[in-house]
Design brief:
The protein is mostly helical. 98% of the residues lie in helices and 0% in strands. It is built from one helix and no strands. It is rod-shaped, with a radius of gyration of 44 Å. Keywords: Coiled coil. This is Putative ATP synthase archaeal, H subunit. It comes from Methanobrevibacter smithii DSM 2375.
């Protein structure tokens, strides 16, 4: 009889231990899920921040490139204007000579 009551006590203890193990496991899983959510949010926020920074850098680079290109175009335009002016001035003397010849 003592053996049966010892066996029952062991079974009850095992059940109690199993129930506590289940409670502990559930608590740990909730903690792990919460920690995973926090980590995921942090990773997402860092990724967003990095993407925003990359976008800003891309815009700044594009603006800088556009400014340099505009300056280059303006410089080329100025050079072309100067060249055309020089050619025109060379033709002024020829035109004046033709007018003088035709008038006289």
């Amino acid at each position: 009889m003592a053996e049966i009551s010892e066996a029952i006590a062991m079974i009850k203890k095992a059940e109690s231990d199993a129930e506590q193990l289940i409670l502990d496991s559930e608590s740990k899983s909730v903690d792990m899920i919460n920690e995973s959510k926090i980590n995921a949010e942090n990773i997402i926020n860092e990724a967003k921040k990095a993407a925003e920074e990359e976008a800003k850098n891309t815009v700044f680079d594009a603006e800088d490139k556009a400014k340099k290109e505009a300056q280059s175009i303006a410089k080329d335009g100025e050079a072309n204007v100067a060249s055309l002016k020089e050619k025109a001035m060379a033709n002024v003397d020829d035109a004046a000579s033709i007018i003088v010849k035709n008038v006289l």
